[in-house]
Every structure is written in structure tokens, then in C-alpha cells.
Amino acid sequence: MLAGLHAVAAEPRPPVTPIRADKLILVGDSTVSVHSGWGGSFCNRHVTSFLACVNLARGGRSTYNYRAEGSWEIVEREMRGGGYRHVYVLVQFGHNDQPGKPGRSTDLAREYPDNLRRYIDDIRAAGATPVLVTPLTRRQFVDGTLVDDLTPWAQAMRQVATQARVPLVDLHARSTAAVQALGPVGAMQFAQRPPSPELVAAAQGGTTADAASMPATGTTTATPTARAAGNTAVEPMGQAKLAFDYTHLGPAGADFFAVIVADELARAVPQLRAQLVP
Fold first, then answer.
1. pLDDT value of residue 226
2. Between β-strands 129-133 and 168-169, what pairing exists: parallel, antiparallel or unpaired?
């Protein structure tokens, strides 16, 4: 009987086909990072088990200070980690490159596009594939029209992508159209926390109100300028505070925009299509 067992164990096994998975690295600010952006939902729900998804986005970062603080060094090590067939790096910056953010802001005409080109060069030098992602829109309105203050940064990124022949996920265009269609009240569902009744009342009039600009009495008499100015103020470094605002995303917002990113990425990088979940 033992001889029979040995005979069974000695039977040759069919060859095992090696698994060659790909890696996707997310780089950006709080609108990409976990708990405040679309990146967590994207990695959790929109990639197959053959695509490793690493979210290295950090709140409050721009094309300048993400590199200056050393975060980019972590990305470079991740890019060069062995065992993956292909490595793709998605880069989304813009919110903190805008003026008014000391230690973060960059010059739109030269520094911002030059920083993007340097990221592209570094990614290619590491043997990885760069993919640029235009910045997610904010969700403030004046008289029913979305305050689209990130258009210049999105356009600058599009130009860099064209010049450097880099795949582009135009999240800004898709998110702007979606938020405008939802309107000021409908878009409130994407925030990290529910809006107050006063904020909803202001939005129903077509012009969103920043929570900090609302009068202490709880009325909705804040001026349109104050109502629309909230997200141009300095956004926090590090993890975004769980609160209602018009920039950061709660679970519903993260899920909504992650779907858009997955769809656009499949279009921009067709070789990833089979590893993305719609």
C-alpha cells in the first residue's frame, strides 16, 4: 500500500504558468488620497487581483512640496520594486499649486508644467509608464453655475500630456460636467459630512455658502463672494478633517468619481482595460 502512495506522489505535475501582475501607483493630493479622495475607492473596487494598486497621495501636497518633502523618493522605490510586468504611475496635482498656499503654490506659467515634466521624466527613467490626471473639480456654485477655478491648471496639464505624449485621464472635464449637471444641492452628497440646513438653503438659491462665512445667527445672508470663496482658502496639510466642504470626498463622492477614473483610464491606457473593473 505504501508503494502505491509513493507511486501516486511521484506522478509528474503539469507546469505552473508564472503570474506576472502589473502595479498602479497613485500620486497626488487629498482629492486622491484615502478617506478624502477617489483613490481609496478606486483601489478597493476598480482593479482586479492581477493589478496591485498603491495609493501614495497625501493631503495638502502640490507638484512642489510632494517632491521637496521626500514623498517622491518613496514612489521611486515603489516603481523600481521587482516582480511586476508593468508599472503605471497616475499623477494628479493642481489644488495646492494654486496661489495662496504658502510652501505649496507654484507658478502656473512655468513651475507647474516644469514640475509635471520632471515627474514624467523620472517615471520613464524608472522604466514605468506615466499617466497624468487632471484635477478633480470643486463643487461651489454662484447663481447656479459651477465655479470652475481649476481650469487653468487642468489646461496646463493637458498641454504637458500632449507635448510629452503621455496618456491623460481628463477627470477635470468629466467631473465638471457631472457636478454642473447635479447642481449645487445634488453635488452636496459627495462631501465627507452632510451639510447643515443653512448650507442647503443657500444652495437651493443657486449659490453655495462656505460654512465659515455663514452668520452666527444661522441665517443665509452671507454675500455671494463669501459663499464662493471658501475653497480658495488654504487647505490643510495631511489628512483632511472629516467635515462638510466642497473639495474633499466622502464615500459616495469617492465611489462616484472612482468610476469615472476607471472608465477614463481604460480609454487612455487600453492595455489596462482587462485589469480594470467598471
1. 37
2. parallel
Confidence tier at 18 by pLDDT (50, 70, 90): low
Q: C-alpha distances in angstroms, 260 versus 28, 137, 172, 188?
A: 17, 13, 10, 18
Q: Report the C-alpha gap between 103 and 175 in whole angstroms.
A: 28
| Sign of the torsion angle spanned by Cα atoms 41, 54, 179, 208 | positive
Name all domains of the chain by residue range, CATH numbers in brackets.
Answer: 21-273 (3.40.50.1110)
> Look-up: residue for cell 508644467?
113
CA–CA distance, 89 with 53 (Å, rounded to integer): 10
Backbone angle region of 83, left / alpha / beta, with phi > 0 → left and psi within -120 to 50 → alpha: left
- Of the pLDDT bands very low, low, confident and very high (cuts 50, 70, 90), residue 1 is low
Query: Which residue type occupies 184?
Result: P
At 13 the pLDDT is 82
Per-residue pLDDT tens over the stretch 38-72: 999 999 999 999 999 999 999 999 999 999 999 99
Per-residue cell: 166:
503621455
Among left, alpha and beta (phi > 0; psi -120 to 50; other), residue 196 is beta
User: Rounded to an integer, what distance in angstroms lies between the CA atom of residue 31 and that of residue 257?
Assistant: 10
DSSP per residue over 56-93, as a string?
Answer: ---TT--TTHHHHTTHHHHHHHHHH-SS-S-EEEEEE-
- Amino acid letter at 148? D
Residues 6+ apart with CB under 8 A from 32: 26, 38, 39, 55, 57, 92, 133, 136
Find out whether 132 and 175 touch, Cβ atoms under 8 Å: no
User: What distances in angstroms separate CA 213 from CA 101, 137, 198, 221, 228, one per listed residue?
Assistant: 19, 21, 11, 9, 9
